[in-house]
Specification:
Layout: H1 12-23, E1 39-40, E2 55-56, H2 64-67, E3 76-77, E4 82-84, E5 93-98, E6 109-114, E7 129-135, H3 138-141, E8 145-146, E9 152-159, E10 170-185, E11 195-201, E12 204-210, E13 220-226, E14 234-239, E15 243-251, E16 257-263, E17 273-277, E18 286-296, E19 307-316, H4 321-324
Antiparallel strand pairs: 1-19, 2-3, 4-7, 5-6, 6-19, 7-18, 8-18, 9-15, 9-19, 10-11, 10-12, 10-18, 12-13, 13-14, 15-16, 16-17
Length: 326
């Protein structure tokens, strides 16, 4: 493994303290659930071990977030476990490869995700853009997972050597979940009282990179958590090595999101807990899915950093509603 220079993050403690004060009245507090806890859901997730694993891209991809165009049909993996996001489109490269050195014992295959055109297909925007690669969880299960079952997800992520990263400051990759809450909208006029509606939001962790600056400088990367109770991202765990990392998120019955990360491919433990938040002040009610963001500068010439994912799995706790509310 190549090493990234250690970088001390000072804003984390203050940010988490503010978030705790702001959300303490939202719900009864539950301890974090370590991702990988409970029953693994066989119908969703992927280990990429099938030698015939394929992704059908159905290009050109969608870019609704930029030009309001959904280019149907959208891409989908042959096993039906992954699909293109109609809002931003899929990565330009979605390819099963031999598992990079140091992966999980016995793993023969993993998935390479990389993009050149992250904006409108064939056009350069010369600004940060992203593609989405979405795990099909909600549709394959016939519905979202209620948070009283403490849904949680674990992935293994391979970071390439530093010299293979896109030489750009900012976000390079995202690992996120999709969660649902209920929000109340204020009354409109004298005859229409407050109303409630379902709202989807997307907590997660981003990998941000600072390239080497000058002959005496050092490159470094860190995880950025989305988000605190005010909707703000903040710097969290330093990525001190490249190679394999294990990342995970869980949602507990109080609607809080818990974030975990560690170098290597060993199972997560409570020692790997990096944050717990009510992102945007919302209390999650259901877990819909998880997904990845592949980002670059969208200049039409420079490929995004080549990240590899493996063994992406969703778990839940088989507990009753009554037990979860004690």
């Amino acid at each position: 493994m190549s090493h990234l220079t250690f970088y001390r993050i000072g804003a984390l403690a203050a940010s988490m303290a503010l978030a705790t004060l702001a959300t303490s009245s939202l719900a009864q507090s539950y301890p974090p659930v370590v991702p990988g806890t409970g029953i693994k859901i066989a119908q969703v997730g992927d280990d990429f071990e099938d030698p015939e694993w394929k992704y059908h891209a159905a290009n050109p991809k969608s870019s609704r977030n930029i030009d309001k165009r959904e280019r149907l049909p959208t891409g989908e993996s042959a096993n039906g476990r992954w699909y293109e996001g109609a809002k931003r489109g899929h990565p330009d490269i979605v390819r099963r490869i031999k598992t990079p050195k140091g992966g999980l014992p016995g793993s023969q295959g993993a998935l390479l995700l990389q993009s050149l055109h992250t904006g409108v297909p064939g056009y350069a925007s010369y600004r940060l853009q992203q593609d989405d690669f979405i795990a099909d969880v909600k549709y394959r299960l016939g519905g979202a997972i209620p948070v009283w079952q403490s849904p949680n997800v674990v992935i293994r992520l391979w970071l390439p050597p530093v010299d293979k990263w896109e030489k750009r400051r900012g976000t390079h990759f995202g690992f996120r979940i999709s969660t649902i809450t209920t929000v109340t909208k204020p009354a409109r006029g004298l005859f229409f009282g407050p109303t409630t509606e379902s709202k989807t939001y997307w907590p997660g962790m981003f990998i941000d990179f600072e390239p080497k600056r000058g002959p005496e400088g050092n490159a470094y990367a860190y995880l950025r958590v989305r988000a605190n109770s005010y909707g703000g991202d903040y710097k969290s765990k330093q990525l001190t090595t490249t190679g394999w990392w294990t990342l995970g998120m869980s949602v507990t019955p109080d609607g809080r999101v818990h974030y975990f990360a560690k170098p290597g491919v060993e199972d997560l433990t409570m020692d790997d807990h990096i944050a717990s938040e009510f992102p945007y002040g919302y209390r999650a009610e259901h877990f819909k899915t998880f997904f990845f963001n592949v980002c670059n500068g969208d200049d039409g010439r420079t490929w995004s950093t080549p990240f590899v994912v493996d063994d992406c799995h969703v778990y839940y706790l088989k507990t009753s509603r009554t037990a979860s509310r004690r």
